[in-house]
Amino acid sequence: MAVKALGKDKVLAVSMPCNSINADFEDAMLVADTFGVRFIKVDLTNTYKELENELNSTLQEINVSSITRESSINIKPRLRMTTLYGIAQTLGYLVIGTGNLCEAMVRIYYKMGR
């Protein structure tokens, strides 16, 4: 819809894997190629792991690993939101979000990390 409304030269697709399978990235690249839009990948795996490690070292009395894994449904969308808005601010773009299959299955959609 963004390509139809704005033209492919004004659309940037961003893939943000976080402990994701490569097939997801390949599917995202295929969609971007199909619509002829610019495509970038920002891998959030290390960022997520670093946050988890920092929380564990700061809150030594609590096993944060299990907490963050259980709440990753909230942490990962917030990392993606921060990434998208950082890119948009840097490039002077607007963020147009799409949900993913997990979000669709639980009938939620994150755009602002909520």
Describe what you observe in this structure.
This protein is mainly alpha-helical. The protein is built from six helices and two strands. The protein has a two-stranded parallel ribbon with strand order 1-2. It starts with a helix and ends in a 9-residue tail after the last helix.
Concise structural overview:
With 114 residues, this protein is mainly alpha-helical. Helices cover 57% and strands 7% of the residues. The relative contact order is 0.13.
Question: What is the fold-level CATH name, i.e. the topology?
Answer: Rossmann fold
How confident is the prediction overall: mean pLDDT?
83
Q: Tally the structural domains.
A: 1
Structural class: mainly alpha
Shape: elongated
Instruction: Measure the end-to-end span.
Output: 24 Å
Low-confidence stretches: none
Number of strands: 2
Q: How are the strands of the biggest sheet laid out side by side?
A: 1-2
Can you tag this structure with a few keywords?
single chain; 114 residues; Rossmann fold; 2 strands
Set down the secondary structure blueprint.
Blueprint: H1 2-6, E1 12-15, H2 22-35, E2 38-41, H3 45-58, H4 64-70, H5 72-91, H6 101-105
Parallel strand pairs: 1-2
